[in-house]
Design brief:
Layout (H helix, E strand, L loop, with lengths): L2 H8 L5 E3 L4 H10 L4 E5 L5 E6 H10 L27 H11 L3 E6 L2 E7 H26 L3
Parallel strand pairs: 1-2
Antiparallel strand pairs: 2-3, 4-5
Bound molecules: adenosine monophosphate (AMP).
Length: 147
């Protein structure tokens, strides 16, 4: 299965935020949109970083006494974003997530954000593969060995 197969079903919408916006705004967006990450984009909508719920939890722990909510997102985000392409195999994205210990991969197409694959999307696609294989094998056994 390819990344483009997942995006066809899921859509290409990506939750984004600007680097000058605050961590409080990021937190609000993450909660309201029920996502685990926001891609940080510049005025041209080009990704400059990523901030996830994990970054905010870490920040809240490190700066427990300070006003961490007022910090700009650009001070907290991860800058070197690892991206995927629509033509990538889902297995490749799984390897990226496992090797780098993150759960979100923005997808770029022709220099533009074209979607985001989360670990939840991967599990969903594996589950539907398993269900299809299970159904096939069940039908095969039922036809071969009728009771
Ligand atoms: P996550 O498991 O996705 O919540 O992210 C764990 C850490 O990896 C956080 O510090 C994120 O900012 C960072 N991160 C998440 N996704 C990516 C990515 N695609 N490229 C680089 N860093 C990432």
């Amino acid at each position: 299965m390819k990344v483009s197969d997942i995006l066809r079903a899921k859509g290409s919408e990506v939750a984004t935020i600007g680097g000058e916006q605050t961590v409080a705004e990021a937190l609000k967006l993450i909660v309201r949109r029920k996502v685990g990450s926001l891609v940080v984009v510049n005025d041209a909508d080009f990704p400059e970083g990523i901030i996830t719920e994990r970054d905010i939890v870490r920040l809240a722990d490190e700066k427990a006494e300070g006003n961490w909510r007022a910090l700009p997102v650009k001070q907290v985000m991860t800058r070197n974003v690892i991206i995927g392409l629509p033509e990538d195999d889902v297995e490749y994205i799984m390897k990226l997530m496992t090797a780098n210990r993150f759960r979100h991969v923005p997808i770029m197409k022709e220099g533009k954000l074209a979607g985001l694959i989360s670990i939840g999307d991967i599990i969903k696609s594996l589950l539907s593969d398993f269900e299809a294989a299970n159904r096939y094998l069940t039908d095969y056994i039922a036809n071969k060995y009728p009771c």
